[in-house]
Amino acid sequence: MSNLYNNGATSANKAPEENVGSCSPQDSSVAKIIGSSSSSDNPSNQQSSGSDRAAQREAALMKFRLKRKDRCFEKKVRYHSRKKLAEQRPRVKGQFIRKRDDSKSGNECPSSDDS
Question: Does 102 reside within a domain?
Fold first, then answer.
């Protein structure tokens, strides 16, 4: 009986190995079929896609060069009403300042205590 038990144990131990071994030839044959079909198509696809990529890249570079020539770095006024108001506001060294009553001293702030 111990032999039967051992045989069962060894067959149980061998079963996963056999399953792994039995699966790999099927997987490898499928992989060979898939690999052979994709590898036979790949070189022709790479050559044609390489020339397509070069043509697309050349077209993109031409488009970029044309757009680069037309760049405008000058300031563009989008809202003329805002520009008009900004020109009316008082400035000191280019920065906007608050409108002051007739007091010209820089440290004094108008206060609401004068009422």
Answer: no
